Amino acid sequence: MRFRSVCMHFVVAVGVLFTLTDSTEGHVILEDPNGGEVLEAGSQFTIRWRIQISHNLQNWDLWYSRTGAGGPWINIAQNLPPGSNAVGSIHTYDWTVPDDPSTQVRVRVRMDNSGTDYEDLSNQHFTIESAALPGDGDGDGDVDLADFEIFLDCETGPDGGALAGGCEVFDFDGDTDVDFLDFGALQTSFSG
Predict the structure, then answer these.
(1) Does 101 fall in a domain?
(2) Top-confidence residue, 102 or 191
(3) Residues with Cβ < 8 Å from 188, sequence gap 6 or more?
(4) Cβ distance 113 to 98 under 8 Å?
């Protein structure tokens, strides 16, 4: 939702009165996330916004909604330092994406001023996906026999154990290689 100010101009041409409307952007503009992004739970995402019209800025507040533009709104950060108050100045916040999966997520930023507050939110929905479960090669939410088969394909495939094509979920020891050292951890994760 963008708050817009509207300026009316009156023009008289050949005895006819025309009204021209000029719509300008709101006082604060949320730039990222603005719709279409796919964020993984636990990852870092930089929320970005800029000042369109300067005010007596006190601080910034951020929220997200997992059910669209109507909320309810869940706190991200409150009373962030005001930073630069210059028109066009960019402000950011590094957000650790919560494990709160949804395809209808929006972020909202509020410019807290000594007078009227202004806010903006993502123009369209974006998605938060759950982080991949280590060892869950087929993405079905558990580690089972099907995942052992995928592990073997990753270990012995044409890339020779190099991380590629979804094999990252099997790199338990973090050495960027799927090999016998990861097999024991996969067995421990086995859920049946």
Answers:
(1) yes
(2) 102
(3) none
(4) no
